[in-house]
Specification:
Layout lengths: L2 H4 L1 E2 L3 H5 L24 E7 L2 H12 L7 E6 L5 H11 L14 E4 L5 E5 L8 H7 L7 E5 L13 E7 L5 E7 L6
Helix pairs in contact: 3-4
Length: 184
């Protein structure tokens, strides 16, 4: 069986039956239990209806992360990447405001386990010298990387990949993929 065939989707049944907004699941909806399969990729797909719900979902993921973990965060402009990172950072103990590092490339926040937030949107690719500037963001932190595709092969292996997509003005489809069972 291939890894693709082993993907575990934990979608509420209501999402399969209808597009009705009254059936849009939230992070608080009960998810079906994961099936234990060795060497499996786990996928959680949820539609959030507000920035607060997106942050709450990120907080659930954050409780399963530790120093050295890297989370790739992808999505089009305005999809809620920084909102997701803000929710995770708060759950990890960051007290200061969490904002997009689009113009500074990276922020490092103090917390019991420091949190790094990088936005690689403005980079066309990373060369060895630029990697030297970015590498400290990954030392002893939980690192969230927006626009990870701009990092190429330089980025460390990810613990989870988060993808956010617009459903409509207030709803976001959030997918969290991991080779680990994160218990989400």
């Amino acid at each position: 069986m291939t890894k693709v065939q082993q993907i575990i989707h934990r979608l509420p049944k209501s999402l399969h039956r209808s597009d009705s907004r009254s059936e849009v699941p939230t992070p608080n909806d009960r998810q079906a239990p994961a099936t234990s399969v060795s060497d499996t990729i786990s996928v959680l797909d949820v539609v959030t209806g507000s920035p607060e719900e997106t942050e709450a979902l990120a907080a659930r993921l954050a409780t399963r992360l530790g120093a050295g973990d890297v989370v790739a965060v992808s999505g089009e402009l305005g999809a809620g990447k920084t909102t997701f990172v803000r929710g995770a950072a708060r759950a990890l103990g960051v007290q200061e405001p969490v904002s997009s590092p689009t113009f500074t490339i990276g922020h490092r926040y103090e917390a019991p386990v420091p949190v790094a937030h990088l936005d690689l949107y403005r980079l066309a690719g990373i060369d060895p010298e630029e990697w030297g500037d970015l590498e400290p963001y990954f030392d002893g932190t939980v690192a969230f990387v927006e626009w990870p595709e701009h990092g190429g092969h330089w980025l460390p292996e990810t613990r989870a990949t988060v993808t956010l997509n617009h459903v409509d003005e207030s709803h976001r489809q959030v997918s969290i993929d991991s080779e680990d069972d994160l218990g989400l």
